């Protein structure tokens, strides 16, 4: 069964190029030329992932991500202009799963898209990680704290898994973003710090005196095996 993809971008030439290439590689592609039309398409249909341009007339891609994340955790791959590091940082901070800088090759886009979908799709092999009162069903992408489900974005989940697999050991900021599948070191440090802050809030870890995800100044973070 073909995967359903929504492409939101105001570049009609890009629509034709990507739709043709992606449809040859197992996707059905719906296109929207601006953010408002993209949100309408999402409300009317079901999609497996979104390709989203940042710079669009009217509602920009950052606002579209915010609105999608209010209702859905579906994978979002952002399309950004080369050098727009601020857009990439903000996009990842508010819940985008990955980004690719324009101009890009269709093959590179396809590889990044498949990687995002793999991270979001349950695997047949069951990996379960328990650290203190946190339980992580890795293939099901479900996190519970004291038995209660906790809703995380894609990148928050991946960073938590990377920490949990090394519970009790320090993990560098850059390594966390690499293990989460997003390896731009220039973006990494600040982005990880923001997501750690979000994780602490969602895991009820006091950010003023964290006992679960502890900061190792100048290095990275460590997930405690048990809450102190």
Q: What's this model, at a glance?
A:
By secondary structure, the protein is an alpha/beta fold. The protein contains eight helices and twelve strands.
Explained architecture:
Helix 2 packs parallel to helix 3 and helix 7 packs across helix 8. The radius of gyration is 18 Å and the shape is elongated. The longest helix is centred in the C-terminal third of the chain and has 18 residues. It is built from 8 helices and 12 strands. It is an alpha/beta fold and 228 residues long. The chain has a 5-stranded parallel beta sheet with strand order 2-1-3-4-5, sandwiched between helices. A 4-stranded antiparallel beta sheet has the order 6-7-8-9, with helices on one face. It has a 3-stranded antiparallel beta sheet with strand order 10-12-11. It starts with a strand and ends in a 5-residue tail after the last strand. The model has no long low-confidence stretch (mean pLDDT 85). A hairpin with a 4-residue loop joins strand 7 and strand 8. Helix content is 40%, strand content 23%.
């Amino acid at each position: 069964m073909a995967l359903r993809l929504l492409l939101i971008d105001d570049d009609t030439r890009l629509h034709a190029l990507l739709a043709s290439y992606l449809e040859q590689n197992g996707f059905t592609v719906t296109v929207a030329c601006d953010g408002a039309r993209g949100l309408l398409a999402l409300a009317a249909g079901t999609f497996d992932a979104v390709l989203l341009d940042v710079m669009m007339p009217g509602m920009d891609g950052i606002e579209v991500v915010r609105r999608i994340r209010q209702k859905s955790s579906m994978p979002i791959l952002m399309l950004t202009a080369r050098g727009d590091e601020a857009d990439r940082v903000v996009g990842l901070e508010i819940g985008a799963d990955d980004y690719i800088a324009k101009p890009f090759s269709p093959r590179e886009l396809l590889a990044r898209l498949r990687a995002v979908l793999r991270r979001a799709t349950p695997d047949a092999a069951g990996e379960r990680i328990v650290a203190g009162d946190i339980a992580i069903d890795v293939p099901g992408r479900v996190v519970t704290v004291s038995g209660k489900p906790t809703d995380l974005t894609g990148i928050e989940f991946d960073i938590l898994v990377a920490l949990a697999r090394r519970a009790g050991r320090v993990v560098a900021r850059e390594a966390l973003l690499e293990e989460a599948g997003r390896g731009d070191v220039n973006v990494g440090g600040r982005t990880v710090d923001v997501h750690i802050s979000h994780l602490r809030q969602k895991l009820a870890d006091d950010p003023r005196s964290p006992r679960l995800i502890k900061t190792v100044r100048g290095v990275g973070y460590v997930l405690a095996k048990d809450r102190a």
